Amino acid sequence: MSGVSIRLYWWQGLGIAIGSAIVLYTNSSVAQITPDGTLPNNSDVRLEGNTRIISGGTTRGANLFHSFREFSVPTSQTAFFNNVLDIQNIFTRVTGSSVSNIDGSIRALGKANLFIINPNGIIFGKNASLNIGGSFVATTANAIGFDNLGFFSASNPEVPSPLLTVNPNALLFNQIAVAPIQNSSTVPAGSTPGGEDAFGLRVPDGRSFLLVGGNVNMDGGRLNAFGGRVSLGGLASAGTVGLNGDGNNSRLSFPNSVERSDVFLSDRAQVNVFAGNGGSIAVNARNLEMTGGSFLRAGIDSGLGSDNSKAGNISLNATVAINLNNNSEIFNQVRSEANGQGGDVSINATTLLVRDGARVNTGTFGTGKGGNLRVDAQDVQLIGTSADGKFPSGLFTSAQPNSTGDAGDLTVKTNTFLVRDGAQVFAGTFGAGKAGSLTVDAQDVQIIGRSADGQFGSGLFTRAGRNSTGKASDITLRTNTLLVRDGAVVNASTFGAGNGGKLTVDAQDVQIIGRSADGQFGSGLFTRAGRNSTGNAGDITLRTNTLLVRDGAVVSTSTFSAGNGGKLTVDASDVQLIGRSADGQFGSGLFTRAERNSTGNAGDLTVRTNTLLVQDEARVSVASLGTGTAGNMTLNARSIRLNNGLLIANTRSPKVDRDREQATININSKDLIMTGNSNIRTNATGKNVIGGNININTDVLAGFENSNISANSANFRGGNIRINTKGIFGIQFRDVNSRNTSDITATGRTRRLSGNVQITTPDIDPTNGLIELPTNLVDVSQQISTACTLGSRQFQSSFVSTGRGGLPMSPTEPLQDTSTLSAWVRLRPKPATRAKITISPQPTAVSNSTKVAAATTIVEATGWVVNSNGNIELVAQAPNVTSESSRQTPASCPASR
């Protein structure tokens, strides 16, 4: 949040700076239209009533040049260019030092394009209007270039060359600080192509409207170029902006090496280009801010268009930041009853911030396809909802009700992606067309929380809505880290006839944590076939190094209706499923489910991982609570640990699929450790429903602290349990679960309907290498002689062990070639009895006992001899030899066992 605050302060500073500039220029004296006498044929201005008629000027081919010291149009007055009809371009420069304040009307004859060049700044007031037949360019550049043939300069007036008959191709900025352009015009401007009222500055339909300066500020003002092109932008220092195309469809190209200026839209400012065909908007700036319900609007207007119609695009390019807030909106749509293809919206910036109900969207309400939405930025933040809580902030592509076209694709490419406090990214269909795909490529993705009132969950969504027939499309997340927490979701669902989309995550680390503050909404990854839908839910595929799901969060694919649920597949190095929600009602875990009253089948659940931890009542579950079949669970891991964890397969369905089992748990792991009331369980609760099977292949199976494996059926036959292992510890087979013990059971409605339990171990001899220790141990405390007590007169002997090789030889004795260590006793164990541990497949108690071979009794040494190498060996009985007496009488210190 600290980064967001910094950006907000930055933008506030921008607003203050622009506002100060506005006050400065507005309070300057209102000048009139005064020729400067710098042209071969000078401009002529005469006043008739409230109209200043401009004639004269210098003509070169189809170009007409005017030059004024001052150029302003007061309120309720008109500046009328009385040009001949074959003029194509009118170039008007201001060579003095005054700002052009235009609060009246500018008019020209014919279809001429009008250029106004004033390096001091241009301000259009609330009452400003245009009545011209061509495109309009207002710029604070110093000059207009003509394809290296010359230029028409406002800061250095020169006689134009006779060669200046071509179209201009550049705007030249020489100032260190470029003056701004402001538009506040809201006067009536006729009707839109679709029949709505238009307001503000307007050029003829299909023509271009360019504001190119320093900062461009639209404070409540509106620009209209229906079916044409609007370009906003400028430079903050010296440089050249390319001017491309003919006068009817002019485009700007900005240098990458020159710092750009800022564009600011506030107080319901609007740019409108929607029509029956065409219509595009381009913004090139350092920073773009839209606030106070401002709009950029393009697309095919209501009731217009044809099969061949194609709306133009909206292109936003900012070298620093784009900030959209307070219900501002950018959209490119095929509107209701319109026909044709919608245009795209593309956003390129270092930072994109969309908050407080602001939205960027493409869509179709008609028969054409909606456009695509693409975001390419270093940092993308989508935050919150509108102040009234009615609209989430976010990015959207959609096919709306009664539409027949497809929605466009939505793509986000960024380093960091934050979606929080109810903001959303949505790609969906509510009509006959399919939804567009949603793709995110990022280094870090964080999706957090819900709106303050809980109405909107933060998230990424693709959806086929109610009564739709189109297909929901896929969600693809490629990121290093993915965090989904506090009730946020990633959800691909269908509520209509079309199938739901797939959800695919490729990441290094995935963390899905907790629930909403009120506990009602769980964080998670979901695909669903919703109630009353007939389409199938999509699959979920997670590929990651680490997956953590905890505190009531879930990964789930399910069906609530006639469609089938999707498959859930996890490929990871480490998977941890931990705990329940804070209020204890909801467990964390992985789920595939067919919900109550559903008729579709649930999908399979597969986990492939090195380590799987299921802890504190978290679970992995496949289930059918309806009439469809439950899916199967397959866990392939090097190590699985359940600590008060659950692996569950439940079913109520009596359906039998000859090609596959249902509600079966398959476990393949080197070790499977169960502690703290853990359970591996299949339950069948419906009438005549066979319990699911449990198949376990593991080297080591250990179950302690009332941990159980059970395949039970409440009303019919229990399932089968097959265990293939090298060793079982703690857990035992029993007819029924015993309290406070770890059991393996397979019960049915009656004993005759119980399932089978089969435990297979390798053909090994468990007694090999073991010896039977003596049971008649001697109390060694009674075998210690008091003569050896510390401090006694007889305490003269000692025993020193130096490890392997025995005691060292005296340095006065000759060296020996070898040293000998003889065992005190030689063991001759009896031949072992080989045994194979098996448990009958019938559900009866099993007990096994194995006898262990006994070893010979250890015999104490009673003497010693010197062997052929001169070394001393302790022996059980010494030969009858005469020994040399010591100078001292040895104490009686018999060896003890």
UniProtKB/TrEMBL annotation:
It holds the Pfam family TPS. It comes from the Bacteria. Residues 36-147 form the Filamentous haemagglutinin FhaB/tRNA nuclease CdiA-like TPS domain. This is Filamentous haemagglutinin FhaB/tRNA nuclease CdiA-like TPS domain-containing protein. It comes from Nostoc minutum NIES-26.
